[in-house]
Each structure stands twice: as C-alpha cells, then as structure tokens.
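Pilot study result, target chain (208 residues):
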Amino acid sequence: MRTEGPTSNPGKSRLKRPFALGFAGLITVFLVVFFTEPAFFDWAFERHQNLLSWVVRPLLVLPLCYAAWRRSLTGIFATILAILTSMFWFPVPDSPAEEVSRFLAMERSFLTQGWTRQTVLGACAVLAYAVALVAAFWRRSWSIGFAVAAFGALLKGAWSLLISPEAGQAVLPFASGGVIALGCAILVLSRRVSSDRRNKSKEGTPNL
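Predicted structure:
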C-alpha cells in the first residue's frame, strides 16, 4: 500500500540541508568515539542496563519512519542519532535485571572482538535493515515498511537467541513491542489518510 505524502519545497530543502549534514556528522563523531574510547564505551553500556533505554529505542523507529515518509533527511539523521544515543539517556539502575546484564555482556564482547566475519555480517545486516526501512517509507509504502520492520525484529530476536539462548530472550519483548507500536501507528495513519481522500473526493464531486 502506497500513499501520497506532502510535496517537498526545493527552497526549504536547501535550507535544511546543512542541518542534515550536521546530524550526519554527529552520528559519525559518536560512532568514532564509541568504538575508540573504552571509557565512553563502558559508561554507555553501564547506563544501557536501564530498561527504559530498551523501551525507548524500538519506539524511536516510529519517528524515523515518519521522517522518511516526509522525505526529511534532517529528521532521518536526527532520529538515527537519537536511536544510537538512547542507550545512555537514563542512569545506571540500582539493581539491573540479570538477563539484561548477561545479554549486554555478550553484546559488549561481540563488539570488541574486532572485525571478524560475524561482526562484518552484523554491521551489514544493520545497515541493510536501516536502508530498507527508510527506503520503504520514503517511497510511502507502509505495507513494505511494516514488513521490513517485522523482519528486522525477527532477525534481531533470532540472532540474540543464537548468540546467547538464555540471555537473548531479554530482547524479544522489546523488539516485538516496537513492531506492534509501528503497526498500530500505520493502521491509524492509513485510516486517516483514507478518510481525508474520501472527504476530498466528495468535495470535488459536483452536485447534480
């Protein structure tokens, strides 16, 4: 299902381009610091034990999809930056869940083992998922976008269980919850767009 979105204004697009480049630059800086500064890496993962960051991260996929639907590069890069940094938005919990701590320990070990076949495949999978999701909503195909999101959540859950069968179960509720939230948002918005179309069609029909 494809829907028409708002038309873009070339003048406004040129004005917003520096902001998009700025957020893209911040993403690059974050990734460089994250993977080259052990102290920052450890600090971020300590705070990522807070379950609020696990709740917020999949929900941030919603504004990412909306920004893509609006064809806003600024919104896309800003949301990606928010998704990446959301892992340390919240303080270290007093008593982190045991399964969460085990999963994050496994993930930290995976990210610090250097460039292996597994890490390359993982990086390519994440990049392919992000590009496919943004491309689907950029083309304003909600059904394909939802399918990509659901498939991505399925792969994330399968990878987590494959790497760590016990600790990987901690990911499943949050990954599935994000897909459910996206599905509900798509359902509401698609009905609203259909209603607006019907109203416009009625307004444009001449009275006989």
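One observation from the pilot: The two ends are 33 Å apart (CA to CA). A full batch analysis is planned for the follow-on phase.
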